[in-house]
Each structure stands twice: as C-alpha cells, then as structure tokens.
Amino acid sequence: MEDIEYEYLKSNLRNYLESHGINTSRMFRCINPNHNDSNASMKYYDDNKVYCFGCGETYNLFDCIAILENVDNKEAFKRALQYYKTGQTLRTIKEFTKEKNKENNQKEKDYSRAYKIWTKNLDKEKSAKNYLFNRKIDEKTAKRFNLGYNEFNFGDKTLKAIIIPISKNGFTARNIDTSNNELRYYKTKGHHTDIFNKEALYNDKPFCFITEGEFDCLSLESVGANAIALGSVSNLSKFKNLELNKKKIYITAFDNDEAGEKATEDIIKFFKQNKIKYLTYNSVDYKDVNEALVKDEENFKFCIENIVKRAMKKVNEEEMS
Ligand SMILES: [Zn+2]
C-alpha cells in the first residue's frame, strides 16, 4: 500500500466518528477512556485527527477504532480496511506492522519533481484555477508558493486536489471536487507535516501572523502580510518548541470557532510565559481568515493594515524605550 492510499484510508475518520453518533462539526466529549471529560474538549480536524484540549491526546482513525471498539491496534487496522478498503488488495497485518516500523526510520520522500509537474498541471486545469480565483488566491501568490494540481486515484475513487507544498518532503492536498465530499484534505503523513511558510518566522519582517489553515496563510500573504500556517493541530506544540525570534510580534489569527478560541488562549498563555509580544486578530463575522478575504476584500485589507500598524507601533515603542 502506498503512503497516499494509507492516508486516504485514514481520511475516513470523520465518516467513522459520525457513524458512532459523534457530530464532528462541533466539539464533542473526549473519547480517551482515561479522561473523564465533562465539557466537550475534543475536536475533529481536517488533517484526519481528533485533538483533545483537555488531556492533549491526538488520535487518528486506527486509534479511534481501537478505543471505540475496544480492540488492539492490529485489529483496528484490519477493521479500518474492512470498513473503508480502497479497492486495493488487502495487505496482511504483518506487512502493515513491518511498514509502520520502517516508516519511522525511512528516508523521507522527495516530491520536488512531482511539484514541477503539478504546477504545470495547474496552468492547464481550469477548475483548479477557478477554485483559487473563488478563494481569492491570486496567480502571483499561487506561483510564489508553488501551488499545483493533481488527481490521485484510489481504486475506484479519484481525488482532484490543489497541492500546497509544505516542504520538499510533504504537502497538503485540498479537494476541489464538490461532488466528492468524503474528503476535504489529505496531508502527507506525520513527520513530513511541517509548519507552512516557516521562513516567515525567520525573515526580517517585524511581525508574523499565525493561522490554522494554509489558505488562511495564503490569504494574508496575498495582501502583503507575513504569515505561517500551523496546518495541523499537532504543530501547535511544534511551534512552541521552536527557537522564536523575540523581536518579532506574533499575531494570532485562528479560526473563529470554539477550537480556534481555545488554541488562541493556549498560545497567549505561552507568549505570556515566555515574554513574547503578541496581538490577536479575529475575523469577527467570518469563520476564518480566508472567508474574511473572500466575503469582503476591502474590509479585510483595512483590518489587516490596521493590525499591522498596531504591531509596528509596538515595535517603535520598544525601540524608543
Ligand atoms: Zn481528553
């Protein structure tokens, strides 16, 4: 089984949770049997994981099957294949375990050549260009970030996706086919998933926005602001472990939902503890940064300019004192 097929299998997590009566569009009670969660601390994320803001656990499809059906990991994988097999030949559990082990010390895949092909694909694919146009990601920004387009085949299913390279070893693929609503994103796995546009943390710009999704980051970059996207919830802790430039002002710009609020609280606590300067941006009437841009570009630019001014004022004050 290819990495990509394995990821596709994992992408059934939302479907699986829904089939267990869990509404994944809102926060729900943590499924960790050791966490007596009284206030819906768990959240489903588009990187095919659930994350608990209470106990900090992250689970993928196999973990969830293991917990909810009370079976071990091998059995959970077997069941995942039974429920969602992708039309490929079933592998034996032995092969799976062997691969899982290999995965940990395997040489990272290099997608550089694929990216070249995928960016060319984007030039030719009208639906993909339209998709970007509708999300107000202009051509210049698309080129600067090497966005591409590709179709992946999984047995009888096809995923048509905008490719967002994160590094040469990993990318995010955003489904653009509205008739396929099983999967919105898939990401190359685990250790390949890094923070998107990490350079923004180390360039000489005096501020940096921190967003959740790649499209939020691209939205800010398209109006000239400096931004990163965490992409995955597990990258929140990765971010905290980075050697951060303390001269920079960090501007949180998480999604306008309960999980976004919790992530904001969490990161502010971290900034305060480490005496790091920050500001918070909220997309107010919109669910996230990209929606704010799409629905009202003028106002979005105005708000961003404003917060950047506030950041610059903070920098200047610092220099005076
Ligand atoms: Zn929990």
Features:
321 residues; alpha/beta; DNA Primase, Chain A; DNA primase DNAg catalytic core, N-terminal domain; Dna Topoisomerase Vi A Subunit, Chain: A, domain 2; 3 domains; 4-stranded antiparallel β-sheet; 4-stranded parallel β-sheet; 13 helices; 17% strand; binds zinc ion
Topology overview:
Blueprint: H1 3-10, H2 13-19, E1 42-45, E2 49-52, E3 58-59, H3 61-68, H4 73-84, H5 93-105, H6 112-124, H7 126-134, H8 139-144, E4 148-154, E5 157-167, E6 170-175, E7 185-187, E8 207-211, H9 214-222, E9 227-229, H10 235-240, E10 249-253, H11 258-273, E11 278-280, H12 289-295, H13 297-320
Parallel strand pairs: 8-9, 8-10, 10-11
Antiparallel strand pairs: 1-2, 2-3, 4-5, 5-6, 6-7
Helix pairs in contact: 3-4, 9-12, 12-13
Bound molecules: zinc ion.
The site of zinc ion has 9 residues, from loops.
Please tell me the total number of domains.
3
Q: How many strands, which pairing sense, and closed or not: the largest β-sheet? A: 4 strands, antiparallel
Count the DSSP helices.
13
Tell me which ligands are bound: zinc ion
- Beta-strand residue percentage: 15-25%
The whole-number mean of residue pLDDT values reads 87
Secondary-structure element order, N to C:
HHEEEHHHHHHEEEEEHEHEHEHH
Indicate the radius of gyration in whole angstroms.
20 Å
What is the spatial order of strands in the main beta sheet? 4-5-6-7
User: For the record, what CATH class of the largest domain applies?
Assistant: Alpha Beta
Intertermini distance:
60 Å
User: Which geometry do the CA atoms define?
Assistant: globular
Helix/strand-derived class? alpha/beta
CATH-defined architecture of the largest domain: 3-Layer(aba) Sandwich
